[in-house]
């Protein structure tokens, strides 16, 4: 892998297997990853270490960690061309995280939006892991020396703190880490819930969340109930402030079909939401159909998925351990 570093830039990203993958994860992140493989050297992982900052059912977590791999592959991430792995299979993540936590300030972690949100949601379990989560994320990233980290908008702050930590470390020890750039897609960077268009689409509101594995009927039902707007205009027009629900549906439709908002407005002129909502459902159903079918097929081949994980862990660990050794040496840990 290392020899190609000079030729291709590197990209890395991850998703927590804390729930089913949904349209927000897909349009905000995965869809953009699959297109990059010829241009970049790509590392994508399932962030299982991160999930236990919130209580998980162990059997469910195990199951979803395999399902998520099947879904990554079904979304077009070829395991021959991308390094696909499970975070807990590469111990260097936890090891670097400890070192970096000593170069991260309490104050900067206190300012993280996700920490504030999650500690408000889980008041009975504001654990230290929830607080130091961004340090582990920084370790995930910096171990692989990536140039770019493709994420949805909500993760931008975490990539920014990663840059701050890396710069701080480099300023003490020299050029140890590549400073990564967040890569936020123009379309799909923030998909809102269908039932709550003021909040990002999230598994915690399942009725407004379209999961990649939902049946066509289920998807049609969720779009049918999608909140549009409170005015009586019934006109497909892009206005994020006054018609957030319609703007969200237009964003979804546009991201999948590649049509501009003007083209969509023209296509549905005079037709109202009654025609528009089923049309959005239809493009989503047809787009997700081959992904669902392929993921279902792959899930029957557990031996293959395990082998992908084994290969991925080996390829990832090769790169990660190289960075970890360098860091250990720089901070003064005695080497044998
Ligand atoms: P996570 O698991 O919450 O989400 C995974 C990816 O999906 C994007 N995303 C969305 N994009 C658009 N609209 C939405 N409604 C939406 N919901 C989620 C997220 O921005 C993200 O790109 N901390 C990370 C996981 C992680 C990671 C990393 C990512 C751990 N280590 C290292 C990159 C690099 C997280 O919780 O994402």
Structural summary, described in words:
With 336 residues, the chain is mainly alpha-helical. It folds into two domains: 2-189 and 301-331, HUPs (Rossmann fold, 3-Layer(aba) Sandwich), CATH 3.40.50; 206-296, Tyrosyl-Transfer RNA Synthetase. It is 53% helix and 7% strand. The chain is built from 13 helices and five strands. It has helices spanning 23-34, 48-51, 58-74, 92-101, 106-110, 113-121, 128-142, 156-173, 216-224, 244-257, 261-267, 273-299, 302-331; strands at 9-15, 40-46, 82-86, 148-150, 181-183. Strands 1-2-3 form a three-stranded parallel β-sheet. A two-stranded parallel sheet has the order 4-5. α3 packs across α12 and α9 (216-224) packs antiparallel against α12. The protein binds tryptophanyl-5'AMP (TYM). The site of tryptophanyl-5'AMP (TYM) has 24 residues, from β1, α1 and α7.
Main attributes of the structure:
7% strand, 2 domains, Tyrosyl-Transfer RNA Synthetase, 13 helices, mainly alpha, 336 residues
CATH superfamily of the largest domain: HUPs
Question: Strand content of the residues, in percent?
Answer: 5-15%
Helix content class: 40-55%
- Please compute the radius of gyration using only Cα atoms: 21 Å
Question: What is the N-to-C succession of helices and strands?
Answer: EHEHHEHHHHEHEHHHHH
CATH C-level class of the largest domain: Alpha Beta
């Amino acid at each position: 892998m290392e020899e190609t570093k000079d030729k291709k830039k590197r990209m890395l990203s991850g998703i927590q297997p804390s729930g089913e993958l949904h349209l927000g994860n897909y349009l905000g992140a995965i869809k953009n990853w699959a297109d990059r493989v010829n241009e970049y050297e790509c590392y994508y992982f399932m962030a299982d270490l991160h999930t236990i900052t919130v209580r998980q059912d162990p059997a469910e977590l195990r199951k979803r960690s395999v399902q998520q791999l099947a879904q990554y592959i079904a979304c077009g991430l070829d395991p021959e061309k991308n390094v696909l792995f499970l975070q807990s299979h590469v111990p260097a993540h936890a090891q670097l995280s400890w070192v970096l936590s000593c170069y991260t300030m309490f104050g900067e972690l206190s300012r993280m939006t996700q920490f504030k949100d999650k500690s408000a949601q889980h008041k009975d379990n504001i654990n230290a892991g929830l607080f130091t989560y961004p340090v582990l994320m920084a370790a995930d990233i910096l171990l692989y020396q990536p140039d770019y980290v493709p994420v949805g908008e909500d993760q931008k702050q975490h990539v920014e703190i990663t840059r701050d930590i890396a710069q701080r470390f480099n300023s003490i020890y020299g050029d140890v880490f590549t400073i990564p750039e967040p890569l936020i897609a123009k379309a799909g960077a923030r998909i809102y819930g269908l039932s709550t268009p003021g909040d990002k689409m999230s598994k915690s509101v399942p009725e407004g969340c379209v999961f990649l594995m939902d049946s066509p009927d289920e998807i049609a039902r969720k779009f049918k109930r999608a909140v549009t707007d409170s005015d009586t205009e019934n006109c497909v027009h892009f206005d994020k402030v006054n018609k957030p629900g319609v703007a969200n549906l237009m964003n979804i439709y546009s991201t999948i079909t590649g049509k501009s908002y003007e083209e969509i407005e023209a296509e549905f002129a005079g037709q109202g939401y009654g025609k528009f909502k089923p049309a959005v459902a239809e493009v989503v159903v047809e787009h997700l159909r081959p992904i669902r079918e392929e993921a279902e097929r792959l899930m029957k081949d557990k031996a293959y998925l395990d082998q992908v994980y084994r290969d991925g862990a080996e390829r990832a660990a090769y790169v990660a351990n190289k960075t970890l050794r360098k860091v250990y040496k720089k901070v003064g840990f005695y080497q044998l």
